[in-house]
Amino acid sequence: MNKLLFIMLLCFYTGSLFAQKDEQKILVSGSVIDSFTGWGLGNASITIYNDRDSVVSRPWLLTFSNRERNGNEFREGFPRKKGRYRIHVECKNYKPTDYWFEISRTMRKTELTIPPIAMQKDFRLNNTEDDDADLKEV
């Protein structure tokens, strides 16, 4: 049942991307993973900014899993404009992560795949309750 649902969502998602194909757009795709396990993080939020810190887009993160590994992928088509862009990723209990990439007007590619964005756990967030503990009571 899960495989069928995943395949249906993937077909709909991919079909809608190609239905809007435009020569002046570029498709940026990538994934978000845990830096230790290499597994995909399904609850991450992604925002793409231009070099002036204006929001360009907020792509959806498609999450899938099987018995061996969790994975995810985001894809976003946006106008082919020369410049530097920043992908900002946030996820609960992880340190916020940024990835910079550049698009040139002479780029002939219609798709740009970036390497997986590896996020590190933020262990400081998990110890906030124990900071106020009084060791004399033990």
Quick structural summary:
This protein has 2 helices and 10 strands, in the order αββββββββββα. The protein has helices at about 1-20, 125, and strands at about 25-30, 30-35, 45-50, 55, 60-65, 70-80, 85-90, 95-105, 110-115, 115-120.
List the topology elements.
Blueprint: H1 2-19, E1 25-30, E2 32-34, E3 45-50, E4 55-57, E5 61-65, E6 70-79, E7 83-90, E8 97-103, E9 111-113, E10 117-119, H2 123-126
Parallel strand pairs: 1-9, 2-10
Antiparallel strand pairs: 1-6, 3-4, 3-7, 5-6, 7-8
Shape: globular
Q: Kindly report the oligomeric state of this protein.
A: single chain
| Biggest β-sheet description | 4 strands, mixed
The helix count comes to 2
How many β strands by DSSP? 10
What does this structure look like?
- A 4-stranded mixed sheet has the order 5-6-1-9, covered by helices on one side. A 4-stranded antiparallel sheet has the order 4-3-7-8, with no helix packed on it. A two-stranded parallel ribbon has the order 2-10.
- It is 16% helix and 39% strand.
- The chain is built from 2 helices and 10 strands; from the N terminus they run αββββββββββα.
- The chain has helices at 2-19, 123-126; strands at residues 25-30, 32-34, 45-50, 55-57, 61-65, 70-79, 83-90, 97-103, 111-113, 117-119.
- The N and C termini lie far apart (51 Å).
- The model has no long low-confidence stretch (mean pLDDT 78).
Notable features of this structure?
138 residues, alpha+beta, four-stranded mixed sheet, four-stranded antiparallel sheet
